[in-house]
Amino acid sequence: MQKIEIISAAAFAGAVRHGTVLVLFTADWCGHCVTQSRIIDSMASQNRFPEAVRIGVVDVGEAPLIAEKLEIEAIPAVIVFRDGVELHRHIGIIGEDELLTLLQ
Predict the structure, then answer these.
(1) CA separation for the pair 26, 61 (Å, rounded)
(2) For 63-79, what is each residue's pLDDT tens digit?
């Protein structure tokens, strides 16, 4: 099972600085976010993500400045970072195959 890291506002810059990191931006009150979280959780529990990819979750209610800095205006949002640089962004629910495609 791959680990999913809860990323705080204070830890965000360090969390995405090195390697490839898929980050889900979410909120507890968002129904679509719950669905997206379940998809990512299922994939992680089945080790479906490439081994080198780290997976993180940011609650926009707890880290509003990060969401503002990244101009996240809708959730769920999935962003793939490589060495601190945003490579891909998807707003809304994204399925397993599409998630894996973003990471290639």
Answers:
(1) 8
(2) 999 999 999 999 999 99
Query: Tokens in use for 81?
Result: 């970072």
What tokens does 71 get? 């101009």
CB 24, CB 40: distance < 8 Å: yes
State the Cα–Cα distance between residues 13 and 15, nearest whole angstrom: 6
Q: How many residues does the chain have?
A: 104
One-letter-per-residue 3-state SS of the chain: CCCEEECCCCCHHHHHHCCEEEEEEECCCCHHHHHHHHHHHHHHHCCCCCCCEEEEEEECCCCHHHHHHCCCCCCCEEEEEECCEEEEEEECCCCHHHHHHHCC
Q: What is the reported pTM?
A: 0.95
| CA gap 19, 2 in Å, rounded | 15
Q: CA-CA distances (angstroms) from residue 31 to 9, 28, 75, 104?
A: 22, 8, 10, 28
